[in-house]
Specification:
By secondary structure, the chain is an alpha/beta fold. It folds into 2 domains: 211 residues, DHBP synthase; 96 residues, Rossmann fold, CATH 3.40.50. Helices cover 27% and strands 21% of the residues. It contains 10 helices and 17 strands. The strands form 2 sheets. Strands 1-8-2-3-7-4-6-5-9-10-11 form an 11-stranded mixed β-sheet, with helices on both faces. It starts with 5 loop residues before the first strand and ends with a strand. The structure holds adenosine monophosphate (AMP) and magnesium ion (MG). Adenosine monophosphate (AMP) binds next to strand 6 and strand 10.
Length: 338
């Protein structure tokens, strides 16, 4: 364990070569990407990858996404790259799309969470792609937070979670997308969404039939075998207790007025008209994880949240239901729907 975590600006060649040296020597380094900050190590080095799991406290069967500098490098880790995968990478890479493909034997099982597949993406951050080139190997990089907590979208978030546990954080400013990549798997011509993100079902539907896995909108109990192992774990959870209130704005207000005490906050859409002191706005989707961290910083203990529209705001909905521990109440019937 290191007692000291250094933060360096990611756009300096010296910082990139220092990060590359650390990674080549088997260490882990936090990196900025367009989605969220990642905790990166040599994807082929079992000992280095183990350090990622230890620093995050991540369950060992939750696979890591492998980050590459270019589409050409996909064949370094994937045994087969179907035509559809090539098309999708060409359309959306570099960018927030991860495709699950059959893995090559060189990818150790610790990286793939014991699976025969590997999730692959090309991040849209020039400095990080340069870093991957300097390392000369693909980088496994899950989100750089303590497992279960909201994902980090600034270097300060990473520092709050991992100081003393990692030697270096590359600071690339605020993440532009702010939500993790869309994760998909392919079944012939069909595209299955395992985790929704900025690359939406609508965007993908130009390339094939899109199916949304049940685990995206529902709670996957530990008993069932989820399509993507990450689905079954606690995620994005602040200390603050969040309850989602389904229904119209009027129904939400009715529920809030009847059930909130003076310490309860209302998490509302920006254009909702409801004049109360204890109000927080969702703001931009890219700021959602920051907002979750702010709730705890401000000592807010209880929130009633307006419910995002499932279809139109699938990525936000998917993160919010997890942050709320699947507590959803229908304001109309006042019954717990889940
Ligand atoms: P994170 O690293 O925190 O962004 O989480 C990565 C997500 O991608 C998790 O939900 C994983 O379950 C999912 N994932 C990564 N690799 C695979 C794979 N081979 N098969 C299915 N899901 C995967
Ligand atoms: Mg994560």
């Amino acid at each position: 364990m290191n007692d000291y975590t250094k933060i360096l600006l990611a756009d300096s060649p010296e910082a990139l070569s220092e990060a590359a040296e650390l990674i080549k020597s088997g260490q882990v380094v936090a990196i900025p990407t367009e989605t969220v900050y990642g905790l990166a190590a040599n994807a082929f080095d079992q000992t280095a990858v183990k350090r990622i799991f230890e620093a995050k406290g991540r369950p060992q069967d939750n696979p890591l996404i492998v980050h590459l500098h270019s589409i050409e490098a996909v064949s370094e880790v994937a045994k087969e790259v179907p035509k559809l995968a090539r098309k999708l990478f060409s359309a959306f890479s570099p960018g927030p799309l991860t495709i699950v493909l059959p893995k090559k034997k060189e990818v150790p099982y610790i990286t793939s969470g014991g699976l025969e597949t590997v999730g692959v993406r090309i991040p849209d951050n020039e400095n990080v792609r340069e870093l991957i080139k300097l390392c000369g190997v693909p980088l496994s990089a899950p989100s750089a937070n303590i497992s279960g907590k909201p994902s980090p979208t600034t270097a300060a978030h990473v520092y709050d979670d991992l100081q003393g546990k990692i030697p270096l954080i590359l600071d690339g400013g605020v993440c532009r997308v702010g939500l993790e990549s869309t994760v998909i798997s392919l079944d012939g011509d069909r595209i299955k969404i395992l985790r929704p993100g900025k690359v939406t079902a609508k965007m993908l539907s130009e390339y094939g039939e899109v199916i949304i896995d049940k685990g995206v909108t529902e709670s996957v109990s530990e008993m069932k075998k989820p399509t993507s192992p990450g689905m079954k774990y606690k995620h994005y959870a602040p200390e603050c207790d969040i309850t989602i209130i389904e229904g119209s704005l009027d129904e939400f207000i009715g529920y809030f007025n009847n059930n909130a005490d003076e310490k309860t906050f209302a998490l509302m859409f920006d254009d909702d008209i409801f004049d109360i002191k204890n109000r927080i706005n969702y703001g931009n989707e890219s700021e959602f994880f920051s907002l979750l961290r702010e709730l705890d910083k401000k000592g807010i203990k209880k929130v009633f949240a307006r419910c995002p529209i499932k279809d139109a705001q699938l990525a936000l909905y998917n993160r919010l239901i997890r942050a709320a521990g699947y507590k959803i109440i229908n304001a109309n019937s006042f019954s717990e729907v889940r």
